[in-house]
Amino acid sequence: MALGTTTFRLRLETPSGTVEYNYVEFDVLNAISIEAEPYFTGEAVTELAAYANHEIALPYIGTNYAIGGGKSPLMLIGLEILADDEESDPGLRGIEISMNLSELLPDSVELSTVDLRILPTMDSSQWNYIEAPNFYEIDDDYNVNIELTSGGALMLIGTLPPTNATVKELNWTPLEAGQIQLDWTPVGDVDNPYVGGWNIYKFQGVQGSVYFPDPDNGVNDGLWEELTLNSLAVGLTLEATQWTDPEPLETGICASYAVIPVDREGNPNYQMVNVTRVDGVAGLLCGDAIPPTTDIVQFDHSWAFTNDTDCFDRKSDWSICYVVNLTWIWPDHEAQGELMWNLYRVESKPTNVNLKYIDPIAADLKGIPGEQGTYNQSGIEIDGIRSYRTYYYILAPVDYVGNEQQIASYPSPSIERVNIEDDWWTYNDHRIPEPKPEAEPPLGVPWLKTLNEYMQEEEFQYAGGALLATLLLNFILLPVIIKKRKRLKRVVTARKRNSSSKRYEDEFDEFFE
């Protein structure tokens, strides 16, 4: 018989021929078995062919369900009824399931405290009480019989016993630029599914500021609730055993850290807190953001051309056949710890160069103070040295936490200038050809040879032509100039003579008047 509404017709006819009809209408429904042994079993009734999906999960970490009354979410059970035809409504008439709490919940949960709430979906945190037309009851064996009119998610709630999960060996390590790294070992009830992870809280300030008290002296929940109210730094999973504070501590600023286990909703268990200590005592710890200022001692170098044919055969290039040997004396370590050194090489004079943008050619060099350190570099290496180049080698100190002296300026005791000259001819002067003997000068006169050589030069020819032209002009123009000068001289003399006679005549005229 097909699913859906079915009508039966009853026809009744009497011997006298009277006929009467009666109709019976009923629905043919589909029953779906829900099997999730040993946790629960049940059945759903639908109008169309359908199937059931179910899901069992712990409450989602970090979701606050706000149960209240000292109870916490324990388990989520999702039920979904879907039609075979995905686009149709299955016409759900109801769901009945029987749930076994002893199988669903850990032994640590007191079943007498368990109750139920209903959610619209598994990922929702907005719950409601189970009220008519829905129904549930919990029997003495802690089996739950539930009747629902729609799918959704059931949430089991109850009282969680306190857990003893905590961290031991909470150690801290200063890192580069003032960062702090925390390391710990989880101990206790770390396999409890209701331990959601670790919350790390942080106080920071100058020496003398507030810090987290030692829990070995007793833990007051009210005090710790106030201390952690606005000091949460990060929440981590239960598997985490290390955390690096992303906010470096500036010079002069110190910090105190507390690690507290939390449940799946993020509620901390203050009784299981542990705090960072300095020399075994709870207090403020300080980072190190100051790079070292130590300089290297007696930084020196030597270089040489190897004249090695095997080197030449590598690339048919003699300019790579050079080696540089750098030497220095290791200085004393800093009071805070051992120094290491990074070696850099640049090809321009360093002036306030920031080394963090340059890759070192050697890293983490270290030695015994007072002893000699060395480093060799060859031209056959990748990006090796070459002739006709000037290099600046820089030794930058790195302290025990990784702070590096990153600004370099020449001159400095920690910077060595190396100028590589072309030394090939020193070893190969025999390759220079002997000059040809000089020819005898014309007529045995050396200056005639020099004159003859100059006569072949174009510049000398131009200069000689200009000189010859000047001499010819002098020969032609000089007599003309002399002749004109004589004529001018006669004219000037005559004018002077005429001028003198006229003056005397004027004087006699004045006398006779």
Main sheet summary:
5 strands, antiparallel
Gyration radius over CA:
53 Å
Beta-strand content bin: 35-45%
Class of secondary structure makeup? alpha+beta
Number of strands: 30
How would you name the oligomeric state of the polypeptide chains in this document? single chain
Supply the CATH architecture of the largest domain: Sandwich
Helical content, roughly? Answer: 10-25%
Uncertain runs with pLDDT below 50, 5 residues or more?
none
CATH topology of the largest domain: Chondroitinase Ac, Chain A, domain 3
Average pLDDT, all residues: 87
Number of domains: 4
Number of helices: 6
How far apart are the termini?
Answer: 177 Å
Please supply descriptive tags for the structure shown above.
Chondroitinase Ac, Chain A, domain 3; alpha+beta; Immunoglobulin-like; 6 helices; 513 residues
Tell me about this structure.
- This protein has 513 residues and is of the alpha+beta class.
- Helices cover 17% and strands 38% of the residues.
- The protein has 4 domains: 28-158, Sandwich (Chondroitinase Ac, Chain A, domain 3), CATH 2.60.220; 166-286, Immunoglobulins (Immunoglobulin-like), CATH 2.60.40.10; 297-427, Sandwich (Immunoglobulin-like); 442-513.
- The protein contains 6 helices and 30 strands.
- The strands form 9 sheets. Strands 3-4-7-10-9 form a 5-stranded antiparallel beta sheet.
- The model has no long low-confidence stretch (mean pLDDT 87).
